[in-house]
Amino acid sequence: MAKITFDGIEIEVPDGTTILNAARQIGGGIVPPAMCYYTPLKGSGGKCRACLVKVSAGSAKDPRPMPKLVASCITTVQDGMVVENTINEQVMDVRKGIVEMLLINHPLDCPVCDQAGECSLQDFAFEHGLSTTRYEEERRTFEKIDIGPLIQLHMTRCILCYRCVYVADQLTPERVHGVLGRGDASEIGTYIENIIDNDFSGNVIDVCPVGALTDKTFRFKQRVWFTKPVNAHRDCETDKCNGHVTLWYKGKDVLRVTARKDEYGEVKEWICNTCRFDKKETSDWTLEGPAHINRASVIAQNHYELPVVNPQVILDLPESTTRELERNPPLRLGGLNN
Amino acid sequence: MGRKLLTEHINVEGINTFEVYRKHGGYRSVEKALKTMTPDEVTEEVKKSGLRGRGGAGFPAGMKWGFLAKPEGVPRYLVCNADESEPGTFKDRQLMTKLPHLLIEGMITGSYALGARTSYIYIRGELLYVLRILEKAIAEAYAAGFLGENILGSGYSLDLHVHPGAGAYICGEETALLESLEGKRGNPRNKPPFPAVQGLYARPTVVNNVETIAAVPIIVNEGGDEYAKIGIGKSTGTKLISACGHLNKPGIYEIELGLPVEEFIYSDEYCGGIWKGRELKAVVAGGSSVPILPKELILKTAAGENRLMSYESLSDGGFITGTMLGSGGFIAMDETTCIVKNTWNFSRFYHHESCGQCSPCREGTGWLEKVLHRLEHGHGSMHDIDLIVSVAKQIEGNTICPLGEAAAWPVAAAVRHFRHEFEWHVTNPKEATVPGAVYRGAAVLA
């Protein structure tokens, strides 16, 4: 175990934990933002530099400060380490700079982007960015690339976090897309036009922090904050998929299906394409109850984290579920108290 | 006349062949090390010599060797970084073309010291003809029993391979080089873990510059203490300087560290002064990524002392009034040089060579280039001058690898020392955009 001080708060975590994950155990506003790091994906992190923090004491043994800011997502804790994030002015300045860099070539097309409302870049920019830009040059644009009937790749929005590359490497038998080109001409692509087609390819949509990879079956259907997330499950026949998902309802229609994400947008259980794209009827699923929505999320603007018995939710749930609810006391809703 | 250690025999006819090289005392260090010294004793000599990495960072080579993890039963590697691509630097190419056996000798002795059984020379893709020279020399060394199984009957075996890159500057960064050598995209790795613990194929690895490795035979032959006597202070030994730009005699010079910069530029033994009888304006002393210095500051430090060609003297005054020895790419610019154009040109290079992995460098290098392009072409504003300094600051220190700094330093330094010139481009766009136009006012001293 290692004891570290993060923004003045002491916490003890197992050796080998990264600074970011230690901060997440504390939780709240002191957690550094992470645009490229994704806990379940091995090798991810270190690229976006959004999570840079100041290590003002390396360890109890060697209390010298680290000379440069370090990426908290890939730097592991040492016993006696002292880390400064929100309390350090330099860190906050650098973070502003990172937002600026990430945005100079971003199209800022949130009004027409499906990711808006659940976009890491949007949240990051809202929290740390400026409302003006110093960038006068033409922005980098790419042609949309067709990578099959289910997923839309819109490179112009991409921040090159490499998450989708890791997903393809680690979840699917064969990776057919990757990063092509160099510098600010880098792009995600398949080189020769190719379809990304395998049972788990849809997960690239969930890991994409921005709107670069979107679900073609959901495109332009609805703003996410007008939809209601409900956790559900089914017995999935696909190997390695256990069918635990979030259904996004508008009225009685399931508009899209995603994997369940935690408060940092990370998927713990990957789902297969059958669950994601083909099962869009309530009858396909066993409903568990409303999904937890972070109060800070834009989705919460229209859809607060609800007490389990909120009548509004019940109204919006499909009939079969409401009948079920009437039969069973509302407290049993949520799947936790069963 | 300074001592020549690396290039003593460089002009001997046929020195690139094994026979002639051997006749001139070649491969003595291999015999000495393998027959009379333990690997640790070789490392100890290198430590004593005070040899510092010649690739640019100037990190003590012996200390780097000492950091190498040596777990039982795990292979270790020595990798030679021959991906010389810093603008203004061309010493390694010459060394390998003329003296391929010196590098091979260094690789054998170094590999023995580190306990490596397989070693690699990673050479930049543009130098295919040098790769062929090296391969021929390696074949000769194999035939003579200096490579392969049981070298000189000592029981030590070594295989040496040459691997060409595909011409990316970033592959000169040691972890990007290792990625590339493994057959992957040449993206720098996050550190830690450092190569000394997890390098090539996740095994302990030392990556050294060509010139560093070429110095090892000399150190082993003469002894570390003897080597340390050459040079000045912590800058020991000799260094190859690639002198280019507006000099009477550009070329590669082996100097003893500690040579006054003034002597290096103006004496007939070295560069022979500025060409066409012109005045020196500025110098980039260590390859394009180090800060540019105006004449006044490259010849004398801010304190008025003579500036010497050494790691310490060149960095005297930090980045406010100093620079770095870097890789020894000495670019001299005469009074007709436009600093704005030059900075834009450097910036264009880094924009082109950024790997695009981390956001500050990927976006920032392009931004810098575009604003500098605007300034150079007379469309800039005063605000743009502060903007490039601020963008450079946002890149510096926040990236995965030093390419970010390499892109930021020249820009920041150019504005620091030649701000008037940038301002002149803004206030006199018509004059400034005439081909060959140069601001003739005085440089701004910090």
TrEMBL record, chain A:
Q: Where in the cell is it found?
A: Membrane
Q: Where is the 4Fe-4S His(Cys)3-ligated-type domain?
A: 90-129
**Cofactor(s) this protein requires:** [2Fe-2S] cluster; [4Fe-4S] cluster
Ordered alphabetically, the record's keywords are: 2Fe-2S, 4Fe-4S, Iron, Iron-sulfur, Membrane, Metal-binding, NAD, Translocase
Q: What's this protein's family per the entry?
A: Belongs to the complex I 75 kDa subunit family.
> Can you name this protein?
NADH dehydrogenase
Q: Report the PANTHER family cross-referenced here.
A: NADH-QUINONE OXIDOREDUCTASE SUBUNIT G, RESPIRATORY NITRATE REDUCTASE
What domain of life does the UniProt record list for this protein's source?
Answer: Bacteria
Check the record and name the Pfam families matching this protein. Fer2_4, Fer4_Nqo3, NADH-G_4Fe-4S_3
The 2Fe-2S ferredoxin-type domain covers: 2-89
Q: Which residues form a coiled coil?
A: none
Automatic annotation (TrEMBL), chain B:
Q: Which GO terms describe its molecular function?
A: 4 iron, 4 sulfur cluster binding; FMN binding; metal ion binding; NAD binding; NADH dehydrogenase (ubiquinone) activity; NADH dehydrogenase activity; quinone binding
Name the Pfam families on file: Complex1_51K (PF01512), NADH_4Fe-4S (PF10589)
Keywords, ordered alphabetically: 4Fe-4S, Flavoprotein, FMN, Iron, Iron-sulfur, Metal-binding, NAD, Quinone, Translocase
What is the E.C. number? 7.1.1.-
Q: Which NCBIfam families match?
A: nuoF_fam, PRK13596.1
- What does the record give as the reaction this protein catalyses? a quinone + NADH + 5 H(+)(in) = a quinol + NAD(+) + 4 H(+)(out)
Tell me one GO biological process term: cellular respiration
User: Per the UniProt entry, what species is this protein from, by scientific name?
Assistant: Hymenobacter lapidarius
Q: Which residues form the NADH-ubiquinone oxidoreductase 51kDa subunit iron-sulphur binding domain?
A: 340-385
Q: Which PROSITE patterns match?
A: COMPLEX1_51K_1, COMPLEX1_51K_2
Gene3D superfamilies linked: 3.10.20.600, 6.10.250.1450, NADH-ubiquinone oxidoreductase 51kDa subunit (3.40.50.11540), NADH-ubiquinone oxidoreductase 51kDa subunit, iron-sulphur binding domain (1.20.1440.230)
Q: Does the keyword Cell division apply?
A: no
Q: Which InterPro entries match?
A: ComplexI_51kDa_subunit (IPR050837), NADH-UbQ_OxRdtase_51kDa_CS (IPR001949), NADH-UbQ_OxRdtase_suF (IPR011537), Nuo51_FMN-bd (IPR011538), Nuo51_FMN-bd_sf (IPR037225), Nuop51_4Fe4S-bd (IPR019575), Nuop51_4Fe4S-bd_sf (IPR037207)
What protein does this entry describe? Answer: NADH-quinone oxidoreductase subunit F
What's the stated role of this polypeptide?
NDH-1 shuttles electrons from NADH, via FMN and iron-sulfur (Fe-S) centers, to quinones in the respiratory chain.
Q: Which family does it belong to?
A: Belongs to the complex I 51 kDa subunit family.
- Supply the SUPFAM superfamilies for this chain: Nqo1 FMN-binding domain-like, Nqo1 middle domain-like, Nqo1C-terminal domain-like
Cofactor names: FMN; [4Fe-4S] cluster
